[in-house]
Amino acid sequence: MIAKNSFPHRQPQTIFRRFESGGPVLIDLSSRRAFRINDVGAQIWLLCDGSTTVEMIVMKIAEEFQVDKARARGDTLEFLKNLIRLKLVEMKKKSKPKL
């Protein structure tokens, strides 16, 4: 279960690239695997900065992609679960200090 007040944090071994020909991609340097993602997934990834809560991500996705909050929540949680399973993101209880 992902708590709505937790802070998703990207793992440093994963990089994000947006290619003109293929769209957004996550590359896990430790496993040498690449994952093609859509624009919603790309925005969720970029918001996994360690200082944005899951609930704030849901709200931003709903607003940016003009979908209702329930759909944004479902899509966000499903994507985060996959990122966690792949060890590309971990959940923190406290936010990362801003520099």
Contiguous helical run count: 3
The CATH homologous superfamily name equals Coenzyme PQQ synthesis protein D (PqqD)
**Cα shape:** globular
**Percent helix:** 25-40%
Question: What is the strand arrangement across the widest sheet?
Answer: 2-3-4
Q: How would you name the oligomeric state of the polypeptide chains in this document?
A: single chain
- What's the helix-strand series? EEEEHHHE
CATH architecture label name: Orthogonal Bundle
Question: Radius of gyration in whole Å, from Cα?
Answer: 13 Å
How does the major sheet shape up?
3 strands, antiparallel
CATH topology: Arc Repressor Mutant, subunit A
Number of individual domains: 1
Question: Any low-confidence stretches, pLDDT <50, length ≥5?
Answer: none
Output mean pLDDT.
94
CATH class: Mainly Alpha
Distance between the termini: 30 Å
Q: Please identify the structural class as seen in this structure.
A: alpha+beta
Q: Could you tell me the number of beta strands?
A: 5
What does the secondary structure layout of this molecule look like, with pairings?
Blueprint: E1 7-10, E2 14-19, E3 23-28, E4 33-36, H1 39-47, H2 54-64, H3 69-85, E5 89-92
Antiparallel strand pairs: 1-5, 2-3, 3-4
What's this model, at a glance?
By secondary structure, the protein is an alpha+beta fold.
Q: What features would you describe in this structure?
A:
- By secondary structure, the chain is α+β, with helices and mostly antiparallel strands.
- It has one domain (7-86): Orthogonal Bundle (Arc Repressor Mutant, subunit A), CATH 1.10.10.1150.
- The chain has helices spanning 39-47, 54-64, 69-85, and strands at 7-10, 14-19, 23-28, 33-36, 89-92.
- The strands form two sheets. Strands 2-3-4 form a three-stranded antiparallel sheet, with helices on one face. Strands 1-5 form a two-stranded antiparallel ribbon.
- Helix 2 (54-64) crosses helix 3 (69-85).
- The model has no long low-confidence stretch (mean pLDDT 94).
